[in-house]
Every structure is written in C-alpha cells, then in structure tokens.
Write a structure and sequence with these properties.
The complex is a heterodimer. In chain A, about 50% of the residues lie in helices and about 15% in strands. By secondary structure, chain A is of the alpha+beta class. In chain A, strand 2, helix 6 and strand 3 form a beta-alpha-beta unit. A five-stranded parallel sheet of chain B has the order 2-1-3-4-5, with helices on both faces. Chain B starts with 13 loop residues before the first strand and ends with a helix. The chains are: A alpha+beta, B alpha/beta.
C-alpha cells in the first residue's frame, strides 16, 4: 500500500513557529532583539477602529444625548416618573459615550500623532490617575523635537502595558516614568515600589503583561529589561531605536 | 452690528452651531432651537468665521475638530472680534482641551456624550460673560 503524497506546504512563513519568549531566570532579564522587524500591522487596524469609534459612533452618541435633552425639555410638565426615565436614559448615554472614548483612546491614542509622545504619555498617566488613584510622575528630558512614529508608538505601548501591570499587580499607589534620549535610542523606564515578583518562578508566557511588552520590544528591535523581586517593586526599562519601521506604511 | 441688534435681556439668545457631523448638527439644532434662536449652522471653520462676523451671534457652539481649521482658532477670532461667547464641544474628557479652550477665550467646554445635560446651561452661561 502506497502512502499518500505529502500535502503541499505553504512555505517557511506558514510553518515557522512563533518566537518563544525566554523564561525569567534571574531578577533581571534582558531581551536583546532577535531579528525584530516591524511593529504589528494590527496597529493599523486599531487606528482604523479608533477613528470609526471617534468619528462616527461617538458623534451619534452625542446626537442621542442631544435628542434626549430635547425630550426632557419637552416633558417638563410630565409626571415625575416619566422625567426620571429620561434622566436615566441620559445618564446611561453619557456612560456609554465615556466608555467609547476610553476604548478608542486605548486602541490608538490620537494625541500621539497630534502632539507627540510626551503629551500622549502624560495624558495616559492623567487618565490612570483619575481612574485608579495611581499617581504617576513623568520626567522627560532632552527628547528629540521629532520622534519617529514607530518608535513613539512602541514606547507608548510599553508604558501603557507596564502601567497596566502596576495597577493590576503591584499594589503601588505611585509610579515613575522617565524618558531620556541617547544618540542611538530613546530610553523609557517605568518604576514602582509595589509588591514585585519572583522572576525565577515566572515564565513570560504565563504573564500577559510581560509577553505583550516582550513582543513590542522584539518587533521594534528594542532592548527590554525587567528587574523585580518580592517586596522591592519592579523596574521596566526599554531602549528603543530612534527609527522603527511600521508595517504597511511608507 | 450695533448693540441694539444683539439679543435684548429677555429675548431668546442667538446661537450659531458648528459641527461637521450631519446627524449631530441636526440634533444640536433641535435641542438648542428649543430654548434659543439658531441663526446659522456650519460644517467648517471657514464657514463659521464668516458667519460669526456676519451674524454676530450671542453664542457660538463649535466642535474642537473641524475638517479645515482648528476649533480653537475659530474660537480665538470669534471671541476677540465678534465678542461672541463660545462653547467648545469635544468627545474627550481631557484637561489639556479645557486648558486650550480657556486660552482661546472659550466660556465652556461640553462633552458630546453629555450634550443633553450640559449644553443649554453652558450656552446660558456663555451669554452672560
């Protein structure tokens, strides 16, 4: 009996295993950059969805709020329970609108392109401070006037994910974000004095926040260091090259 | 425009509306028209500047993001030359936008998802400035 011919393969790209992130085997882990290439094309999808949310959905929610406001004006003599229903609908509309704005901003920060990296990071930190009572001090010294878009996006995402981890895991009530520049790279450092963690017992693929930062760093050819131990807090530091190619853009 | 062309104390306020989203502009017109006279509605900053000078509204309600020019720039000109009270509309609850709006001479910033609650009081407050 002859065996069936092998199924045709689709080449190296489809059969290649995704890179396996290293285990953390000391209290400091350094990821040099194995053949990093681009920031993910999903960034473009995220940007498009964010634009749709802001340019259309948020405007229609605004229109709905205005229509409900008009209804309330017209129901000024209506029974109290009817007016309460309208008030409740207005309140829910405002809540949905705020959530849509928060989601859109998380998908793609408009300020990153409008006003630059420093302003976008400060806005994110202010929002975190309001939402989670986390005080974040941002220091940015001697940054270039113009930062490459891909590098800025990589840095922003690393800060976003690191601070998310601070909120979710550290128990700290403050964090420090520092941005500095060298001739070759922008260095971003996020530090907290929270509970920390035992890096020797942590695998990156068990820890979504870390794997996300690892992928960001790898794609941008950045060097990422995470140092932590129980009781001493955590420091995330990334050295991001001055130029990072964005997939799908010229 | 002479002062007697402005709204008398007991008259309905004359309001100019500026937003590039058609559904939102229509809803704004209906809401504001319930309490004020809507003297014009525009989709661009250029149209808004021309209308602000020509119509001299008591209050202009304008989106911060317009297709041609920045809503803050229109606000700055309208507040300075037409002595019009300005209410800025934005989707983002962002302290920086509030700061820019104040610097541009706006009377208030209203979040779009809170239009039904906040817009008419903001227009009244802008007219009193």
């Amino acid at each position: 009996m002859s065996s069936a011919p092998p199924l045709p393969t689709r080449g190296h790209e489809s059969t290649a295993e995704p890179p396996v992130p290293p285990a953390l085997d000391s209290n400091v882990v350094i990821w040099p950059t194995p053949g990093g290439t681009t920031t993910p094309s999903c960034e473009h999808v995220r940007a498009r969805v964010a634009r749709e949310l802001h340019d259309d959905i948020a405007q229609r929610i605004g229109a709905l709020s205005a229509e409900l406001g008009l209804l309330r004006e017209r129901l000024v003599d209506a029974p109290a329970d009817v007016r309460e229903n309208v008030d409740s609908a207005l309140s829910e509309t405002a809540s949905i609108g705020a959530d849509v704005q928060r989601i859109a901003r998380g998908l793609h920060p408009p300020r990153l392109e409008q006003q630059g990296l420093d302003a976008a990071i400060r806005q994110h930190c202010e929002a975190l401070a309001r939402a989670h009572q986390l005080a974040v001090d941002v220091q940015s010294d001697d940054l270039p006037l113009s930062i490459d878009r891909g590098a800025a996006l990589c840095i922003y995402r690393i800060v976003q994910e690191a601070l998310h981890n601070v909120v979710k895991h550290s128990g700290a009530d403050r964090a420090d974000v520092t941005l500095t520049a060298t001739p070759q790279a922008i260095v971003v450092r996020i530090a907290d004095r929270g509970v920390g963690f035992e890096t020797r017992r942590t695998r990156l693929d068990d820890t979504l926040g870390l794997i996300g930062m690892y992928e960001r760093a790898q794609m941008a050819r950045a060097e990422l260091r995470v140092s932590s131990s129980p009781g001493t807090g955590t420091i995330v530091e990334a050295h991001v090259p001055m130029r990072v190619t964005l997939a799908g853009t010229s | 425009m002479s002062d007697d062309q402005r709204a008398a104390p007991d008259a309905r306020l004359r309001v100019l509306l500026v937003d590039d989203h058609p559904s939102l502009l229509k809803a704004l017109t209906r809401l504001v028209g319930q309490a004020c006279d809507v003297v014009g509605s525009c989709h661009t900053g250029t149209e808004a500047l021309e209308a602000a000078v020509r119509l001299r509204p008591d209050v202009m309600v304008i989106d911060v993001h317009l297709p041609d020019v920045d809503g803050f720039d229109v606000c700055r000109v309208a507040a300075a030359t037409a002595r019009t009270g300005v209410v800025i509309l934005t989707g983002a609850d962002d302290p920086a936008i509030a700061r820019h709006a104040r610097e541009a001479g706006a009377s208030a910033v209203v979040l779009k998802h809170r239009l039904g609650d906040d817009l008419l009081p903001a227009i009244a407050a802008a007219a009193r400035r």
